[in-house]
Specification:
The chain has three domains: 61 residues, no CATH class; 41 residues, no CATH class; 98 residues, Zincin-like, CATH 3.30.2010.10. Helices cover 38% and strands 23% of the residues. The protein contains eight helices and ten strands. A four-stranded mixed β-sheet has the order 4-5-7-6, with helices on one face. Strands 1-3-2 form a three-stranded mixed β-sheet. Helix 5 crosses helix 6. The longest helix is centred in the first third of the chain and has 14 residues. The two termini are 27 Å apart.
Length: 229
Amino acid sequence: MNIEELKLELKYTSRRGSLCYSVKDHNTLAVKAPHGTSMDYIREDISRNWDKVHKLFESYYLDSPVRGFADGIKLFLMGAEIILRYKTMDSIAFHFNPDENTLYIAKDLQNEVESLLKCFFSHKAEYLRVRCRYLAMQHNFRVNRINLRWVSSKWGSCSVKGNVTLSNYLIMAPKAIQDYIILHELCHLRHMNHSKDFYALLQKLDAQYKEHRAWLKDKGRALRIFHQK
């Protein structure tokens, strides 16, 4: 979402002070402003505080994911925005049109949207398994089994048996972030800790790993779009 797409629902109050913002729906911001506040001033204030406003919308989706899956909502696939749309479809539950960057879900299956989205993203997440094998071969790591799961507590893990587990949520992140997590777990095949040797190896394989780690810390929560169980 960007500021140009934002709809405003304005309510004037007799209270003096700063503007108050809350999320009305997936692209509408409710604004409480003192009487006499101009629309130009309100838009300037939103622009100045865009990071804060954007986090309000992130919290809106995360606190009630199903409510957030409204028609026209933007999701992420490989770091790119895709649009969720509901429409009447015969015989199929969902269809992704890459030319339009749009995921269509059958209108009569809206109540099952979360399970259908999981099905769609799980299918796309198979790429992570292929990518992990590729990076392991490229850097001479020996991987046993690669598991993909809807894990919200961590992005990946590695076992002493050489098994790597990756979160399906990673498929929503940019490719560089996916590679960072995969390489992080592959490095654990040689160093089952976070020692200096571990980070030296990770630095060698991903020179920007600190930036990628910071990206996940800042934006990763917004990728976990489903109810956490």
